[in-house]
């Protein structure tokens, strides 16, 4: 590797370098401790220094120095990890530089010329590999060490590196931590002790920051059942953030099969950088905090003061600018934030240059004043530019004072007449304005409180959100304002405003389609709040069907999941149909990610977070119930339905109010408050059933005394009240208020951190469960031991991931179907199958590997989807490892049966078709066929023709390569081949009594010449040149019809059984463990060399 020229004053400092060769201008040196005579104490000391110090000139074992005859100063210009690498650099210098240097008169000119050439070479290399790094020179040095020490595939992208200590027991090893796209790697070399560690991100179970008596702060990594601790970081938080990002990126890419098409910085695994990961994390945090669409990215950040008119003071915070939004969040504890869509901005003014102030005017005759903005002119120009870009005719027209109505009008433009334009609660329970009962009066007082809030804080998308806003939400949002405020706090109002007509188009496209999701939706429609009048009529059922079907059409990855119907039915009660759709989008894709899918990973992660919070806040309960998995099973419905399934509807909507404002934090707080309220009963319970009964009775007695809904709508019926009269009632507002008072200090950032920390463990636990299920099924079909089958699964899964490590276009990614059974989740395309099969097959094939592997792949791929699953792979290996002579021969015979398995040149042109729409009938038929399938008889195997028999014979010869009895095996096959051909020739003659034509080549001789290796056919004693025959061509598939002949499997089997040496070869036991160990060591290298 060429290095940026650096001056070296002492040519042989500390006697660490030995000169290998030199001339008047360059010196090639080898570092002591490497190469010949590199052992002893010198080698140990030098190796230790190489690991500790951050300089490639000291680490690389070879280097080239530039010198001039009349100067004592040397310049390092190149280094290399091997003698071959440094020799290439030396040869380049001799060919391209040495002849030119003689024309210069002065040493300074020579040195300047050499330095210029070297810098030019480095610049050319940097254009390809290191252009996005902060310090390309140091990064190139680190990349050299990374490639030299770990021997990973060249495609593996190094992201960043850190100096740290790795703890083995109580002894720290100082070295270097390298973080690449797919691996966490560590290297240390201290006094002859080398420590090398490589862990795949997809193997990590735990990743967390820890501290104890010995280690003040460290990073704990749990992988493959082993704990690893790294400490002594200069920038521990930065390191942990990058590790967390890479682990999350790996999980999404490998387990969830995400392709990141909307994330340019992450769409190519070969171009991942530290800067790109940090930007991605910052954008995610920005969108989550302000509930913005996924298209928004944080572009600029400005510190400033915002004048808060209702409090009459300036609050310190940060202005965050994205493509379509101007956001502000305070940093002084006032919990004030505001979101201004650029479509609402009508002007930007700069009134006072001395205070660097900026006034942003928005619709509704409102203005926001920012002051002490460092670069206020740049910010003003950026806002003006974005307002011009996002302006549209409907935005530029004069509007009413309420911007919320404008946004909703835009979203509903050109909506279909079939779409409901009213909330179901408005239709089925219109408010009686003349009713002055106490509950209605209290409802009116709530509305008045909110109207006062709107007059002070604003209304619509640019409303200030403060502590007072949360206080009003805890008391409960009025029925008339619930839909509007849900839309605002969830960010769904922005989604709808920027996608006018989108929902109507989805409804038109999705209605009438028939999929697995629509079948499940139809089944669950009448189970959604069946006691509510709105869903006892066609109006409510139709609206629910349209929303759920449209969402399944929009997001087929989720489709439809149980609990979505319950949540959507509540949304339809308080929001218009299109609003309910966008609220569902906000919940499923932003606020509760990964909740509504096949594995409900998001809900399981939040349950793990809930368990962690129970240990932190309810210690008395954890002391009594050491196993908290009970709370996970009980609380699953709490998280999936936001307490709607366990609380009466009139109480549950208050919980949903808090959820849309505070996110999952509100659900976690309420769950802790529920357990705290029932602490005594839970502690005194004797079993899980009694604890469930206690919680159910509690939920039945949670009421909403302020609810204005009539008794026909409320779920808290009279019967339940009489039955539980001995249990005191709990008002939902009091319960929520208590939850905020006791656990409200919990920060959203802490919850997100706990989510990330527990996600790895939850996913790996699910993966382990999947593995056990697969192994239990496959173990009934094969003879492998439990440990061998476990190792095979690990190898198969890793090979599956290898197809995704360095590309986003692999067959397993393009045709991934998350609805498949666990046996089908991990599959291999042909390329990955051939790589793994070549490592595990028991014979040493000398030629024709690719064609044979293609035939094996097609034989195993029964459904012709271009993918092979683990069960199919294991069954094939089981035959080759543990099958009888007949089993193995049958397998080889089948490989040569189909016409497409003749000699072909398109082994690598195989294009998988992928899976289409899931056909349940097809799955049921396949299941039935497997049950009724009889054991295959060798008599059922079709015959093979001449071309296939010739290829079969060649395959047998290829199996014997490097075998101790290779010559005997060759001769045995030659005898069998000759015998079979003679038998077939005799049979053909008996069937065709006509006299044969004269020919110089018999069919036996022709077939033998095609079947046997070079030189074998002529030396076979059974072959005879004077046997009369019919002319025959040797090319497969071109045999004239009148001389076509074939063999049955029984004929071949009987002939081979007469050769003991062949029987011994096929029945020879295989060292399965040795093959598995070899595959584990060579798997990554096989990918590299391919």
TrEMBL record:
GO biological processes: glomerular filtration
Q: Where is the Rab-GAP TBC domain?
A: 476-663
Instruction: Give the protein's biological function.
Output: Involved in vesicular recycling, probably as a RAB11B GTPase-activating protein.
The molecule here is called TBC1 domain family member 8B
Residue ranges annotated for the EF-hand domain, each copy included = 848-883
- Among the Pfam families in the record, one is GRAM
Q: Does the keyword Coiled coil apply?
A: no
């Amino acid at each position: 590797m060429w290095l940026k020229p650096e001056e070296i004053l002492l040519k042989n400092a500390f006697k660490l370098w030995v000169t290998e060769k030199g001339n008047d201008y360059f010196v090639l040196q080898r570092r002591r401790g490497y190469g010949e005579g590199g052992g002893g104490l010198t080698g140990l000391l030098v190796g230790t220094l190489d690991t500790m110090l951050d300089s490639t000139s000291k680490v690389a074992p070879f280097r080239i120095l530039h010198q001039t005859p009349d100067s004592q100063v040397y310049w390092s210009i190149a280094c290399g990890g091997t003698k071959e690498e440094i020799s290439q650099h030396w040869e380049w210098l001799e060919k391209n530089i040495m002849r030119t240097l003689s024309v210069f008169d002065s040493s300074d000119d020579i040195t300047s010329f050499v330095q210029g050439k070297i810098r030019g070479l480095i610049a050319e290399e940097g254009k390809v590999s290191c252009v996005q790094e902060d310090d390309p020179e140091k990064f190139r040095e680190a990349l050299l060490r990374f490639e030299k020490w770990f021997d990973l595939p060249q495609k593996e992208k190094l992201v960043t590196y850190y100096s740290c200590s790795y703890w083995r027991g109580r002894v720290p090893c100082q070295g270097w931590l390298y973080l690449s796209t797919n691996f966490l790697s560590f290297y240390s070399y201290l006094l002859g002790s080398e420590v090398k560690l490589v862990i795949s991100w997809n193997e990590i179970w735990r990743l967390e920051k820890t501290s104890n008596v010995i280690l003040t702060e460290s990073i704990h990594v749990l992988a493959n059942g082993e704990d690893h601790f790294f400490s002594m970081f200069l920038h521990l938080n930065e390191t942990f953030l990058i590790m967390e990002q890479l682990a999350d990126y790996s999980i999404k890419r490998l387990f969830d099969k995400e392709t990141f098409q909307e994330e340019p910085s992450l769409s190519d695994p070969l171009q991942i950088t530290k800067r790109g990961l940090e930007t991605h994390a910052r954008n995610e945090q920005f969108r989550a905090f302000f509930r913005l669409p996924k298209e928004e990215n944080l572009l600029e950040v400005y510190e400033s003061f915002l004048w808060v008119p209702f409090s009459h003071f300036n609050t310190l915070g940060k202005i965050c600018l994205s493509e379509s939004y101007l956001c502000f969040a305070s940093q002084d504890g006032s919990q004030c934030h505001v979101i201004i869509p650029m479509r609402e901005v009508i002007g930007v003014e700069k009134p006072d240059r001395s205070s660097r102030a900026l006034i942003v005017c928005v619709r509704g005759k409102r203005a926001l004043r920012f002051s002490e903005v460092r670069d206020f002119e740049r910010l003003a120009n950026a806002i003006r530019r974005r307002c011009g870009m996002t302006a549209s005719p409907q935005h530029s027209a004069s509007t009413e004072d309420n911007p919320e109505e404008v946004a909703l009008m835009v979203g509903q433009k050109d909506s279909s007449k079939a779409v409901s334009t009213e909330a179901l609660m408005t239709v089925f329970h219109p408010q009686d304005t003349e009713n002055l009962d106490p509950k209605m009066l209290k409802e009116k007082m709530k509305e008045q409180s909110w109207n006062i809030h709107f007059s002070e804080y604003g209304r619509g998308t640019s409303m200030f959100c403060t502590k007072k806003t949360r206080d009003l939400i805890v008391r409960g949002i009025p029925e008339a304002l619930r839909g509007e405020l849900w839309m605002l706090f969830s960010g769904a109002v922005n989604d709808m405003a920027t996608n006018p007509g989108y929902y109507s188009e989805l409804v038109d496209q999705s209605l009438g389609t028939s999929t697995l999701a629509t079948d499940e939706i139809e089944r669950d429609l009448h189970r959604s709040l069946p006691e509510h009048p709105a869903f006892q009529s066609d109006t409510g059922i139709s609206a629910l069907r349209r929303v759920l079907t449209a969402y399944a059409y929009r997001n087929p990855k989720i489709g439809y999941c149980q609990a979505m119907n319950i949540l959507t039915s509540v949304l339809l009660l308080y929001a218009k149909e299109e609003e309910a759709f966008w609220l569902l989008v906000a919940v499923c894709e932003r606020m509760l990610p990964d909740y509504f899918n096949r594995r409900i990973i998001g809900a399981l992660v939040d349950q793990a977070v809930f368990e962690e919070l129970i240990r932190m806040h309810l210690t008395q309960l954890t002391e009594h119930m050491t196993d908290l998995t009970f709370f996970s099973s009980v609380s699953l419905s709490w998280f999936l339905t936001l307490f709607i399934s366990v609380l009466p509807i009139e109480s549950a909507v208050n919980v949903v109010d808090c959820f849309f404002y505070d996110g999952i934090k509100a659900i976690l707080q309420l769950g802790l408050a529920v357990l705290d309220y029932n602490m005594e009963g839970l502690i005194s319970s004797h079993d899980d059933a009694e604890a469930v009964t206690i919680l159910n009775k509690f939920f039945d007695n949670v009421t909403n005394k302020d609810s204005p809904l009539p008794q026909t709508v409320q779920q808290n019926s009279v019967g339940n009240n009489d039955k539980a009269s001995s249990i005191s009632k709990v008002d939902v507002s009091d319960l929520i208020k208590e939850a905020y008072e006791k656990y409200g200090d919990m920060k959203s950032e802490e919850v997100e951190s706990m989510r990330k920390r527990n996600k790895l463990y939850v996913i790996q636990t699910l993966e382990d469960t999947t593995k056990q299920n697969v192994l239990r099924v496959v173990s009934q079909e094969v003879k492998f031991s439990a440990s061998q089958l476990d190792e095979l699964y690990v190898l198969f899964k890793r090979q599956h991931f290898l197809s995704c490590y360095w590309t986003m276009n692999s067959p397993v990614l393009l045709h991934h179907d998350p609805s498949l059974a666990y046996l089908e989740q991990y599959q291999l395309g042909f390329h990955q199958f051939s790589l793994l099969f070549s490592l595990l097959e028991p014979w040493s094939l000398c030629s024709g590997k690719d064609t044979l592997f293609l035939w094996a792949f097609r034989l195993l791929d029964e459904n012709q989807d271009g993918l092979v699953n683990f069960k199919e792979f294991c069954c094939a290996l089981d035959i080759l490892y543990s099958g009888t002579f007949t089993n193995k021969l049958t397998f080889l015979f089948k490989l040569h049966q189909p016409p497409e398995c003749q000699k072909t040149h398109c082994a690598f042109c195989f294009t998988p078709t992928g899976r289409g729409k899931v056909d349940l009938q097809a799955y049921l038929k396949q299941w039935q066929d497997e049950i009724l399938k009889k054991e295959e008889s060798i008599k059922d195997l079709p015959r093979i023709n001449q071309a296939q028999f010739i290829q079969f014979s060649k395959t047998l010869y290829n199996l014997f390569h490097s075998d101790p009895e290779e010559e005997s095996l060759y001769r045995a096959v030659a005898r069998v081949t000759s015998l079979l051909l003679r038998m077939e020739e005799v049979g053909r003659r008996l069937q065709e009594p006509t006299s044969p034509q004269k020919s110089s080549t018999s069919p036996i001789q022709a077939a033998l010449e095609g079947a046997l290796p070079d030189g074998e056919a002529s030396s076979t004693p059974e072959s005879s040149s004077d046997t009369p025959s019919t002319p025959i061509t040797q090319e497969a598939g071109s045999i004239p019809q009148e001389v076509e002949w074939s063999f049955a499997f029984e004929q071949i089997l009987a002939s081979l059984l007469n050769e003991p040496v062949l029987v011994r070869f096929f029945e020879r036991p295989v060292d399965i463990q040795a093959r598995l160990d070899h595959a584990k060591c060579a798997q990554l290298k096989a990918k590299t060399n391919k």
